[in-house]
């Protein structure tokens, strides 16, 4: 079959493309840029003007839309990516007589939806099922799989020494593995005409669980012992979600509170057996690598926070706490000319403050870590020679630079 696939570079779309190719189909990858898979590419950006789909649908047997975003950005809005873009494609499919259309939606995209994510998905689903097409809507629950952004976030959460649970973690969810979502999509694409027409198909795990049990299950898969938990009160969680700075923003918190469960029968029918439970989500052979990555998800930010605090506190103490006369005296003993001592003090403190702020800035910072290491080495060399008594100081102001340098080497290596 010749299949037009949108979102072919995404978490689910990329796996679906590989599965279709393995099954002998010919996927046509539609997206903003080629995904590097070598499949025939069609330039199509749902956030911009729609392409002339009629030029790309000739000879196409099926269309699968997997485009989706969980949060809006200035250049990516639900109204464009979830509604206007897909609807234009669906209507072009109806005009071109495409045999099969499958829409990847989300469990909870229904008449009671409260979040912008769910409402926008539901609008496109409703329009698709109203068209004269052999179409169906696939509605997965929380999807787990290696390489997924939300999966990585949940693994990091699960690997914490103590698990913070919003409102006690009693929310009902029913996670499903990405491999079973992809397998179900392939069956739907290949199904006999009319077999699933007009259906909204829930793709969920074998049975409902709670957020708390899901996190403990992921811990077990990573090879970690059960963790202690702490309840985050619902009002506090709502305030954190309103700030939109973590895994759960306002919409995600609403969706979690509502619950996300359904009957697993459709998925069982599609894949020929019950879906795997949470306990089988993490492959045994991948557990050590995934555990290391998950723990780095919170240990590295913690180390960066500690390093930033060190630089910022040092700057504050240098400027406002430690007696300035004593600082200038130390600079004098280090060989700094009198005219340059005050500028040197302010300059060093300012550089410390800049390093502290830059350390907190998101992204990779190999040059920053190298510059910080060079400065620490420079400070250590000057002080070690000009002020040798600090080698024997009981607080170890020079020897403490060794773990700081080791931390900078670690951050430099990880940012590769």
Automatic annotation (TrEMBL):
Keywords: Membrane, Transmembrane, Transmembrane helix. The chain crosses the membrane at residues 302-322, 342-361, 368-388, 394-413. One of its GO terms (molecular function) is protein-containing complex binding. InterPro entries: ComplexI_NDUFA9_subunit (IPR051207), DoxX-like (IPR025695), Epimerase_deHydtase (IPR001509), NAD(P)-bd_dom_sf (IPR036291). Residues 3-192 form the NAD-dependent epimerase/dehydratase domain. It comes from the Bacteria. Pfam families: DoxX_3, Epimerase. This is NAD-dependent epimerase/dehydratase family protein.
């Amino acid at each position: 079959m010749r299949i037009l696939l949108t979102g072919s570079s995404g978490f689910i779309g990329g796996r679906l493309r590989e599965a279709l190719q393995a099954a002998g189909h010919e996927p046509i990858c539609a997206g903003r840029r080629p995904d590097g898979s070598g499949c025939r590419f069609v330039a199509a950006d749902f956030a911009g003007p729609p392409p002339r789909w009629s030029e790309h649908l000739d000879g196409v047997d099926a269309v699968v839309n997997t485009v989706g975003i969980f949060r809006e950005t200035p250049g990516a809005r639900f109204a464009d990516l979830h509604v206007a873009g897909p609807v234009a494609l669906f209507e072009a499919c109806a005009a071109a007589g495409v045999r099969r259309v499958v829409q990847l939606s989300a469990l909870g995209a229904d008449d009671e939806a409260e979040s912008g994510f769910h409402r926008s998905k539901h609008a496109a689903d409703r329009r698709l099922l109203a068209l004269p097409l052999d179409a169906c809507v696939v509605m997965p629950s929380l999807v787990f799989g290696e390489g997924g952004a939300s999966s990585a976030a949940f693994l990091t959460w699960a690997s914490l020494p103590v698990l913070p649970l919003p409102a006690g973690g009693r929310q009902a969810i029913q996670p499903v593995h990405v491999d079973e979502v992809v397998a179900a999509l392939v069956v739907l694409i290949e199904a006999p005409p009319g077999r699933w027409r007009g259906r909204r198909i829930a793709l969920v795990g074998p049975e409902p669980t709670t957020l708390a049990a899901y996190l403990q299950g992921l811990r077990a898969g990573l090879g970690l012992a059960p963790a202690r938990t702490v309840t985050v009160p619902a009002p506090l969680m709502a305030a954190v979600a309103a700030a939109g700075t973590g895994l759960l923003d306002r919409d995600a918190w609403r969706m979690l509170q509502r619950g996300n469960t359904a009957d697993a029968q459709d998925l069982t029918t599609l894949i020929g057996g019950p879906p795997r439970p949470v306990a089988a989500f993490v492959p045994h052979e991948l557990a050590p690598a995934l555990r290391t990555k998950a723990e780095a998800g919170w240990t590295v930010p913690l180390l960066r926070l500690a390093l930033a605090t060190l630089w910022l506190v040092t700057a504050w103490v240098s400027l406002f706490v430690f007696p300035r006369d004593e600082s200038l005296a130390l600079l004098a003993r280090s060989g700094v000319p009198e005219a340059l001592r005050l500028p040197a003090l302010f300059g060093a403190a300012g550089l410390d403050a800049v390093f502290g702020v830059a350390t907190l800035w998101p992204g990779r910072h190999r040059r920053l870590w190298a510059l910080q290491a060079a400065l620490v080495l420079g400070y250590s060399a000057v002080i070690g020679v000009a002020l040798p008594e600090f080698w024997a100081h009981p607080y170890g102001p020079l020897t403490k630079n060794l773990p700081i340098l080791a931390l900078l080497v670690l951050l430099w290596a990880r940012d590769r």
